[in-house]
Amino acid sequence: MTVAAPARPPRPAPLILTCGEPAGIGPELAPLSLAAGVPFVWMGDPAHLPPGTAWQAVDRPADPVPDGVLAVLRHGFAARAVPGRPDPVNAQGVIDVIARAVDLALAGHAGGIVTLPISKHALKQGADFAFPGHTEYLAHLAGGADVVMMLASTGVTPPCRVVPATIHIPLQQVPAALTPAVLARAIRITRAGLIRDFAIPAPRIAVAGLNPHAGEGGTMGRQEADWMAALLDDLRGEGFDLAGPLPADTMFHAPARARHDAAVCAYHDQALIPIKTLDFAGGVNVTLGLPFVRTSPDHGTAFDIAGQGQADPSSTIAALRMAWDMAQKRAAA
């Protein structure tokens, strides 16, 4: 009797690397990112690429190109790009590239999207961009998906994965913004994302308290005692594996990280300081909750060094590799 070999999981379509702000370091990062060794196409205006870049236009992400050649999905822009000097006339082109990439991903023609940095100021100047940033625009394009931002390391063991429950708001607004509903939402989306995108079947999630020493029994703040502990108990009753609320200052050394798969934190800096300290060049921004894979390098447009040959592709390479791994896990599932 012949035993059939197990079926191989389907191979995802190539990733799309969106151009981002063409006056930043994005055009320089595109050819350097071929070192990631994963299939991807760059979407943007090839006139913005550095002189001497080996590129070839393709009609579809899956079209083959020779090794060492950047595959390009052409998208014309209104003006040439001057490094370090964003031109508002190009703002609509930046926005349209993101929307086109999402359309391809939703149609199954791309395994995921890796977004190079945008300038929100330039987008608001040139196109009246109505969203706080990339993540919110992607969620809108995906039909109003409920998403959270995760920062995930690639260069430290055990890994550091953090999710801020509140993000870009002043610190003085955090206590009022961090409600039971907000924290529960962040925990639920994080757990679902760890299962789907990281293939962790039973995620262990550590939850940071808001106050020093997680309130220390109410002497340094009441949120942990008044509602956070009860909320976590309720979620444990649903089968969630949760630790906390924990003092944030003892959650990120190596033995502590080994006890959880991700940490949900109360506010922006509580989450981002540890990962940027541990793995500044290897941190990847991941959007959990979208119907497609999305990652991005954890840095900005770097106008101050654009066009000078100083761009470091490490974070973009890490973002491409993580997106490809996530796409493979989704395909296998």
Biggest sheet character: 12 strands, mixed
Major sheet: order of its strands?
3-4-2-1-5-12-11-6-7-10-8-9
Task: Provide the helix percentage.
Answer: 25-40%
CATH architecture of the largest domain: 3-Layer(aba) Sandwich
Task: Assess the beta-strand content as a share of residues.
Answer: 15-25%
What name does the CATH topology of the largest domain carry?
Answer: Isopropylmalate Dehydrogenase
Average pLDDT, all residues: 95
Summed up, the domain count is 2
Overview of the structural elements:
- By secondary structure, this protein is of the alpha/beta class.
- The protein has two domains: 178 residues, Isopropylmalate Dehydrogenase (3-Layer(aba) Sandwich); 144 residues, Isopropylmalate Dehydrogenase (3-Layer(aba) Sandwich).
- 33% of the residues lie in helices and 16% in strands.
- The protein contains ten helices and twelve strands.
- A twelve-stranded mixed beta sheet has the order 3-4-2-1-5-12-11-6-7-10-8-9, with helices on both faces.
- Strand 6 and strand 7 form a beta hairpin.
- Helix 2 packs across helix 3.
- The longest helix is centred in the middle third of the chain and has 19 residues.
- The radius of gyration is 21 Å and the shape is globular.
- It starts with 14 loop residues before the first strand and ends with a helix.
- The model has no long low-confidence stretch (mean pLDDT 95).
